[in-house]
Design a protein that fits this description.
single chain; 67 residues; alpha+beta; 3-stranded antiparallel β-sheet; 30% strand
C-alpha cells in the first residue's frame, strides 16, 4: 500500500520594472519575494528568476527535512 503524496505550495510575488538610467535600451530590474518567508531577492536579469526560485524552494525543503 502506498502512502499519499504530500503537497506543498510555495507562492512568490515577482515585481519587474524598467530603469532608464542613461542606458539604452533600458535595464530590467526586479525583486522576487517569497510570500510565506518574506525573503526578498533582487535581480538585474530576468534569466535569474528560475535560479532564485530554485534556491528558495530548496532551502524550504531542507528546513522541512530537519528533525
Amino acid at each position: 500500500m502506498s502512502l499519499p503524496v504530500q503537497r506543498r505550495t510555495v507562492v512568490f510575488i515577482v515585481r519587474v520594472w524598467a530603469e532608464y538610467l542613461h542606458a539604452q535600451p533600458s535595464c530590467w530590474r526586479g525583486v522576487l519575494e517569497g510570500v510565506e518567508s518574506g525573503q526578498k531577492t533582487p535581480f538585474t536579469d530576468l534569466d535569474d528568476i528560475p535560479e532564485i526560485i530554485q534556491q528558495q524552494t530548496q532551502s524550504l525543503l531542507e528546513t522541512e527535512d530537519e528533525p
